[in-house]
C-alpha cells in the first residue's frame, strides 16, 4: 500500500549547501521509507506501482517547527503590538476559549484541515493549557496522517485568571495525565512538554516539567529570547540564571536529556548560543512573527555558520500564514534586511538554505525526515507548477525558486504524502 514509485521532476536538499535536482527522476518508496532517487527504475523495484507526476515538481514535505493551533482562529489579526501586550490583548483571550470543547472542536477542525491542504507534513504544535482540548487536537492531527508533536501548555504565573493553572502541583498533575493518556495512544502524534515561556512558569513548575520529561522520555518545546522586554523580564524573574537559556537548562528543559526546540532566539547572546550548540537545542526561526510583532531579526547566518540545529516555524498567529513557502520567503527577505541594515558581514540566506531549513533542517527534529536519501521517511509534496505558467524555459532549480516565491502550495498542490501514506491527492 505504501510501496510505490513516484515519477517527476525531483528536488531535495542533501545538506544546507547542496540542492539535488533530477528531472524525470524516479523516487522509490518501500514501506514508507525512501530507497533513493534514480534516473531509471531499478530492476528490483520494477514490480512497484508507478505514480505518474511527469512534469511536476516533487519535493520533500515541509516541517513547521513552531505553530500555535489555537491561535489559527485569529490569524491575520492584531499585529499592532509588541509581544507582551500582544499576548495579553489577543493570544490569551483567544486561548481561554478552549476550556469549551465545542469551540475547540470547531477551531481545531478548521486548523487541521488548513494544515492538511498546505505543504506541511510534520509540525510541532502548541495547544493551550486545557488538557482535554489538546487531546482533541491530537485526535484530529493523528487522523490526518500528518506527523506531529503536540503540547498541553503550562502556565502558572503572570497570566490572566481565566488562563492560568491554579498551582504548579495541579499543572504538573494534569501534564502527567496528558502524557499517560497520549504517549502510546497514537500512530502519528505524540506529546511534547510545553512550558509557555519562563514568564508564565514558576521555578517549581519548571523543575517538575524537567522531571516529567526525564521520567517519560518526552521532548520539550518553548520560546526563547524573542523580544527585548521579554528578555529583560526573565532577567528579573530568574536573577540566578546567566541567561534566558539557563532558566530552562537548570531544570533539564534545554536539549538534555530530551530533544528540545526553542522558537525565535532573536536576542540570544554568545553564552546562550554556546549552550544551545552544546545541548543540540533546535532553533525554530519564525521570521513572519518576528516581523509582525516587531521582535527583530534572528541572526540566522551566524547560526548556520555555527552548524546549529535549525528549522523554520510559521508561529501562527504571530505569523499570519501557515504556509511554509511563505516562511521560506520571509526568511530570505529578513536575512537581506539584516545584511543591509544590521551586519554586512552576514550575507543573506539563499534559496537552497531556506529550502534545507524547511525540509531536512527541521526534519532532523523528527529523525530521518525531510530528504529523499535512502532511509528517510517518505514525506512528499507534488506541485503542479504548470498552473503557474511562464513563457520561457526554466531549470528545475529555477522552477523550485519560483514555486517557493509564488507560494506554490495553495494553487499548485497536486498531492501530499507522509510516511508514504496519501494525505491529499487531487
Ligand atoms: N511567547 C510566549 N507565548 C507566545 C506566543 O503565543 N507567541 C509568541 N510568538 N511568543 C510567545
Ligand atoms: Fe510561538
TrEMBL record:
Species whose genome carries this gene: Ruminococcus difficilis
Question: Which GO-annotated molecular functions does the record name?
Answer: guanine deaminase activity; zinc ion binding
| Entry-linked PANTHER family | GUANINE DEAMINASE
Full protein name: Amidohydrolase family protein
| Keywords per UniProt | Hydrolase, Metal-binding, Zinc
Query: Cofactors per UniProt?
Result: Zn(2+)
What GO terms fall under cellular component here? cytosol
Residues crossing the lipid bilayer are none
All copies of domain Amidohydrolase-related, residue ranges: 57-395
What is a biological process (GO) this protein takes part in? guanine metabolic process
Report the domain of life of the source organism: Bacteria
Amino acid at each position: 500500500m505504501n510501496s510505490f514509485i513516484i515519477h517527476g521532476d525531483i528536488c531535495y536538499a542533501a545538506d544546507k549547501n547542496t540542492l539535488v535536482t533530477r528531472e524525470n527522476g524516479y523516487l522509490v518508496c518501500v514501506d514508507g521509507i525512501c530507497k533513493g532517487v534514480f534516473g531509471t527504475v531499478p530492476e528490483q523495484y520494477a514490480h512497484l506501482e508507478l505514480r505518474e507526476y511527469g512534469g511536476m515538481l516533487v519535493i520533500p514535505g515541509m516541517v513547521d517547527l513552531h505553530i500555535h493551533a489555537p491561535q489559527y482562529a485569529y490569524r491575520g489579526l492584531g499585529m499592532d503590538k509588541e509581544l507582551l501586550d500582544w499576548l495579553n490583548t489577543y493570544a490569551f483571550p483567544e486561548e481561554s476559549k478552549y476550556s469549551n470543547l465545542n469551540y475547540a472542536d470547531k477551531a481545531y477542525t478548521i486548523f487541521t484541515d488548513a494544515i492538511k491542504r498546505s505543504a506541511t507534513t510534520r509540525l510541532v504544535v502548541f495547544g493551550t493549557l486545557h488538557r482535554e482540548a489538546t487531546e482533541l487536537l491530537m485526535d484530529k492531527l493523528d487522523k490526518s496522517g500528518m506527523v506531529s508533536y503536540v503540547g498541553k501548555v503550562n502556565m502558572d504565573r503572570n497570566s490572566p485568571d481565566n488562563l492560568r493553572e491554579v498551582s504548579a502541583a495541579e499543572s504538573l498533575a494534569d501534564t502527567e495525565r496528558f502524557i499517560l493518556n497520549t504517549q502510546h495512544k497514537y500512530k502519528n502524534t505524540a506529546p511534547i512538554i510545553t512550558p509557555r515561556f519562563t514568564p508564565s512558569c514558576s521555578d517549581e513548575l519548571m523543575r517538575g516539567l524537567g522531571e516529567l520529561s526525564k521520567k517519560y522520555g518526552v521532548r520539550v518545546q518553548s520560546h526563547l529570547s524573542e523580544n527585548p522586554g521579554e528578555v529583560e523580564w526573565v532577567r528579573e524573574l530568574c536573577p540566578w540564571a546567566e541567561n534566558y537559556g539557563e532558566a530552562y537548562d537548570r531544570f533539564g528543559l534545554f536539549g538534555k536529556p530530551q530533544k528540545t526546540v526553542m522558537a525565535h532566539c532573536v536576542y540570544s547572546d554568545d553564552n546562550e548560543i554556546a549552550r544551545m550548540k552544546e545541548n543540540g537545542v533546535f532553533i525554530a526561526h519564525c521570521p513572519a512573527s518576528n516581523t509582525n510583532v516587531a521582535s527583530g531579526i534572528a541572526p540566522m547566518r551566524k547560526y548556520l555558520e555555527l552548524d546549529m540545529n535549525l528549522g523554520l516555524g510559521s508561529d501562527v498567529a504571530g505569523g499570519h500564514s501557515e504556509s511554509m513557502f511563505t516562511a521560506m520567503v520571509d526568511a530570505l527577505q529578513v536575512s537581506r534586511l539584516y545584511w543591509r541594515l544590521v551586519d554586512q558581514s552576514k550575507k543573506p540566506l539563499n534559496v537552497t538554505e531556506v529550502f534545507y531549513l524547511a525540509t531536512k533542517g527541521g526534519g532532523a527534529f523528527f529523525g530521518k525526515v525531510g530528504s529523499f536519501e535512502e532511509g528517510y521517511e517518505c514525506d512528499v509534496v507534488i506541485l503542479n507548477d504548470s498552473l503557474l505558467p511562464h513563457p520561457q524555459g526554466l531549470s528545475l532549480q529555477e522552477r523550485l525558486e519560483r514555486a517557493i516565491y509564488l507560494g506554490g502550495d495553495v494553487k499548485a498542490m497536486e498531492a501530499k504524502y507522509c510516511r508514504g501514506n496519501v494525505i491529499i491527492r487531487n
